[in-house]
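Schema walk-through. Below, the input block comes first and the output block second. Nothing else is stored per chain. Lengths vary across the set, and this one has 130 residues.
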Amino acid sequence: MKIYYNQRLKSLSRELRRNSTLSEVLLWNELRARRMKGYQFMRQKPVDEYIVDFYCNKLKLVIEIDGDSHYGKIGRDEIKQQKLEAMGLYVLRFDDTEVKKDIYNVLFCIEGWIDEFEKQPPSPPFVKGE
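--- output ---
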């Protein structure tokens, strides 16, 4: 399935990259340059009507970090996740504090998900129209 790139979000995604949170910077340092098991991740990637924190096209994996900007927006985050999954994407979520205080566990979780994906790709989320 082709992921729709929303050109209108390009400038906003650049702004978000320039103003990354500490947890985004910490995780990006571990994901960039194919450091995560050789997979290429992008940060602040426009996908459809959203900008996701991190995205790997080969894995169809979105990684979201929930921090202060997400508090009080749980419903919106759930809708976003449902729409991303309806596009055939997988979503991993981590709390901002967890990334800052225990990044090794976060990396372990991501690596574990990738290991499982490589052994047996999980059933794709329901894709609208199939």
